[in-house]
């Protein structure tokens, strides 16, 4: 990758095989899709074009055989935001080929306690996501390539303890 890919957006544009995301928070409501979240909270139906830009981005990658997947660490009962994210966001993003897994730590110890949210690209480049206490995105810190090994281990741990979203949603979805 060239130096122009040393931003989160650049890494996402340039990955060749897989992009993995670990989500650890129960509320990202100040980070994006704020209007959609408010519509969800008001009991409105999901608009047809909800998240269409991201879904097209997903399709452009997955149609080339690239894998985009994530694990969300959570506890039940779900926060309002998680009900929105899983019910609207994950359901919609799956139409673009993104895969989702849930690591439900409601009744078990979190094997990744203290690990931050991150993206990992091709097991070579990691970007740590920073948020404030209210779920507002503050930026991403792209790590030097030698930092990716630690995040690769986190990904493997997350996947070893998670279950496919559709299985989890069939049991606990709202």
Short description:
This protein has 174 residues and is of the alpha/beta class. The chain contains 6 helices and 7 strands, in the order αβααβαββββαβα. It has a 7-stranded mixed β-sheet with strand order 6-5-4-1-2-3-7, with helices on both faces.
Describe the structure.
The structure is a single chain. With 174 residues, the protein is an alpha/beta fold. It is 36% helix and 22% strand. It is built from six helices and seven strands; from the N terminus they run αβααβαββββαβα. A seven-stranded mixed sheet has the order 6-5-4-1-2-3-7, sandwiched between helices.
What is the terminal separation in angstroms?
42 Å
Radius of gyration: 16 Å
Shape: globular
The fraction of residues in strands falls at 15-25%
Largest sheet, strands/sense/barrel:
7 strands, mixed
Structural class: alpha/beta
**Fraction of residues in helix:** 25-40%
Number of helices: 6
Overall pLDDT confidence: 93
Q: Which spans have pLDDT < 50 for at least 5 consecutive residues?
A: none
User: In order across it, which strands form the biggest sheet?
Assistant: 6-5-4-1-2-3-7
Number of strand segments: 7
Written as H for each helix and E for each strand, in order along the chain, the element string is HEHHEHEEEEHEH
How is the secondary structure organized here?
Blueprint: H1 8-14, E1 18-23, H2 34-41, H3 52-62, E2 67-74, H4 80-94, E3 99-104, E4 118-121, E5 125-131, E6 137-142, H5 148-161, E7 163-164, H6 165-172
């Amino acid at each position: 990758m060239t130096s122009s890919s040393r931003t989160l957006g650049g890494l996402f544009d340039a990955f060749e095989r897989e992009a993995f995301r670990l989500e650890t928070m129960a509320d990202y409501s100040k980070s994006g899709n704020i209007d959609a979240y408010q519509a969800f909270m008001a009991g409105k139906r999901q608009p047809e074009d909800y998240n269409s830009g991201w879904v097209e981005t997903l399709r452009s990658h997955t149609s080339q055989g690239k894998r985009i997947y994530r694990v969300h660490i959570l506890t039940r009962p779900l926060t309002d935001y998680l009900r929105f994210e899983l019910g609207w966001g994950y359901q919609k993003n799956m139409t673009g080929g993104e895969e989702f897994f849930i690591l439900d730590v409601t009744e078990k110890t979190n094997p990744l306690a203290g690990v931050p949210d991150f993206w990992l690209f091709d097991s070579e480049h990691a970007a740590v996501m920073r948020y404030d206490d209210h779920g507002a995105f503050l930026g991403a810190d792209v790590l030097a390539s030698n930092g990716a090994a630690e995040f690769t281990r986190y990904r493997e741990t997350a996947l070893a303890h998670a279950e496919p979203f559709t299985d989890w949603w069939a049991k606990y979805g709202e």
